[in-house]
Amino acid sequence: MPNPFVYGEVVPAASFVDREVELDRLTGDLLAGQKIFLISPRRYGKSSLVVQALRAAAKQGALTVDVTVSSYSSYVGFLEGYARALLGIETRIDKARAWLRDMLGNARPEVRVEPNETGRSQLAVSFPSARTEQDVSRLATEVFALPGRIADARKRKLAVALDEFQAIGAFNGGNVEHALRAAVQHQRQVGYVFSGSEPALMERMLGRSRPFYKAGPVMRLQKIPEDRFADFLEARFRATGMKPVAGLGAAIVELAGNLPYDVQRLAHEVWDDVKAGGRRAVSLDDLHSTLTRLLGEHETLFEGTWQRLTLAQRAALRAAVLQDGRELLSADTRARHRLTGASTVQASLAALVREDLLTREGPRYVVVDSLLREWVARHTF
Ligand SMILES: Nc1ncnc2c1ncn2[C@@H]1O[C@H](COP(=O)(O)OP(=O)(O)OP(=O)(O)O)[C@@H](O)[C@H]1O
Ligand SMILES: [Mg+2]
After folding, report:
1. How far apart are CA 36 and CA 192, in angstroms?
2. 40-59 mean pLDDT
3. CB of residue 167 inside a 6 A radius of ligand 1
4. Which of 11, 22, 24, 197 is the best mutation target for the ligand 1 pocket, counting ligand atoms within 8 Å of the beta carbon and taking the most?
5. How far apart are CA 260 and CA 296, in angstroms?
6. Domain 19-220 homologous superfamily, CATH
7. Where are the domains of the chain?
8. Over 70: is that where the pLDDT of 173 sits?
């Protein structure tokens, strides 16, 4: 019986919880040719939601393309990868070649046939002649026009996902945003979802003076409701022949700070430990012994993180853990945790947020990684 909990990758449909409203909306918007921004902190489940939406759109007849912007180390590399993914829609190699000639001929592409992940042949495209900035921006204009031309050629709707979209800013400053926005706004048959995990960068991209200002709907993904997640966990334990104690689901969700990734990680590891012990009943003690094991396995990592912090940052992080992230600047809190002046604490908190160790949730500062939170609570003084 395989472990029913999945983390560290896009979740399969069977482990996908909640998000019905978001999924319907995203799918509908993509099919309607909207340009959607999808924003949340890391590990909330954007990529998983996008994959589900693309699948749903495909079921309704759309062609789909999914590209992770942050995996490319240069602008031209991204354009090559994007062009390749778009040409991959056409599975017949001869046809894809013809598309390439018709649609990107001016960019003088070099083409090889190579196997893709599933072993099928696909075209690998490169643009060696794009050297100057001007060449590259001409190339970008052509590549960004491709989705519209493909939708026309195939007389089908197209749904394009550009994941980790905040990384686009690193390629070529504002030019990429301008070129892309200019292209997509004319593509009525093509829905786009631009998803990104650095909310501050993504929000800035939507600012008044930026190309994507009012380009389309914005979805800000929230956490999954705690009770839904807890019920799902217990149901999956039961469906795989285990007997979770009442309240186990809620305890996992709480310990994991209800971060989808952390919830699935903790559930996955508990399931493994109970299975390895040849048992069926799952108790709160099981949960705690799994947690202790995980903390041990992360010791080196967390120790390294801790060592890199200044004393003031360590104190601020500890206070955030012990105070549940509340009232960190008050005189009372600072006295209790031996913190120095409010402005130093403020600067430390800001640094911890920049380092992605803390995040703001309303008035609270929350430790991003729930295991780090437990480690700080137990192993630092
Ligand atoms: N709807 C969901 N139901 C259950 N678990 C989920 C759901 N969405 C995400 N998860 C859990 O969170 C993990 C991270 O999800 P995903 O990679 O989709 O998030 P992300 O927001 O794209 O993260 P990143 O910012 O790291 O790219 C998944 O591997 C899974 O364990
Ligand atoms: Mg992702």
Report:
1. 6
2. 95
3. no
4. 11
5. 22
6. P-loop containing nucleotide triphosphate hydrolases (3.40.50.300)
7. 19-220, 226-297, 299-379
8. no
Task: Please indicate whether residue 225, judged by its CB atom, sits closer than 6 Å to ligand 1.
Answer: no
Position in ligand 1 atom list of the atom nearest CA 264:
31
42 lines ligand 1 (CB under 6 A): yes
- % of the chain residues with pLDDT over 70: 99
Residue 88: both structure tokens together: 């991959």
- pTM of whole model > 0.90? yes
Report the nearest atom of ligand 1 relative to the CA of 197: 25
* Atom of ligand 1 at shortest range from CA of 51: 18
Phi and psi at residue 219, to the nearest 5°: -110, 125
* pLDDT-derived band at 95, boundaries 50, 70, 90: confident
User: Residue 203 class from Cβ within 10 Å (0-12 exposed, 13-18 middle, 19+ buried)?
Assistant: middle
Lowest pLDDT segment from 30-39, 138-147, 172-181? 172-181
Q: Which residues pair with 55 in a beta bridge?
A: none
Give residue 44 CA to ligand 1 midpoint distance, Å. 5
Q: Does domain 299-379 have CATH number 2.60.40?
A: no
